[in-house]
């Protein structure tokens, strides 16, 4: 079982989008039993709130539901509980390092660093552009799965 936690500031826009897009990709590849996938916030601002309507509406276009998801806070215990802890932007990584402590097991990554053009995920909180965020998230999640299959799963199941 590979455990993946996506992280952003509020856990209502970007990281839940990554959580549900990644779950969808993994399911379509028949790999859902190999993964535990979740998302969390570095800020307590939105804790307990449902996914932002911009993310919900965008994912609905692809038949993906986020029903039941509520924003939760990243805690120091998550460092031991997850294999991949993935921020959406560089500012998230700094907050994750503060909450999780030193990344001695190299578990902390920025999502688009798995792609050929490393960059931050576009932040829809400021732009209102959830299409751009979705494209970034989709590109990052495909690249992440490729990385995990190559580095972890091939050793276990292929
Ligand atoms: P997220 O978006 O980090 O992608 O969930 C945001 C949510 C809330 C705030 C900023 C970004 N905020 O400033 O409250």
TrEMBL record:
<feature type="active site">
    <location>
        <position position="14"/>
    </location>
</feature>
<keyword id="KW-0904">Protein phosphatase</keyword>
<comment type="similarity">
    <text>Belongs to the low molecular weight phosphotyrosine protein phosphatase family.</text>
</comment>
<protein>
    <recommendedName>
        <fullName>protein-tyrosine-phosphatase</fullName>
        <ecNumber>3.1.3.48</ecNumber>
    </recommendedName>
</protein>
<dbReference type="InterPro" id="IPR050438">
    <property type="entry name" value="LMW_PTPase"/>
</dbReference>
<feature type="active site" description="Proton donor">
    <location>
        <position position="123"/>
    </location>
</feature>
<dbReference type="Pfam" id="PF01451">
    <property type="entry name" value="LMWPc"/>
</dbReference>
<feature type="active site" description="Nucleophile">
    <location>
        <position position="8"/>
    </location>
</feature>
<keyword id="KW-0378">Hydrolase</keyword>
<dbReference type="InterPro" id="IPR017867">
    <property type="entry name" value="Tyr_phospatase_low_mol_wt"/>
</dbReference>
<dbReference type="InterPro" id="IPR023485">
    <property type="entry name" value="Ptyr_pPase"/>
</dbReference>
<dbReference type="GO" id="GO:0004725">
    <property type="term" value="F:protein tyrosine phosphatase activity"/>
</dbReference>
<dbReference type="InterPro" id="IPR036196">
    <property type="entry name" value="Ptyr_pPase_sf"/>
</dbReference>
<feature type="domain" description="Phosphotyrosine protein phosphatase I">
    <location>
        <begin position="2"/>
        <end position="147"/>
    </location>
</feature>
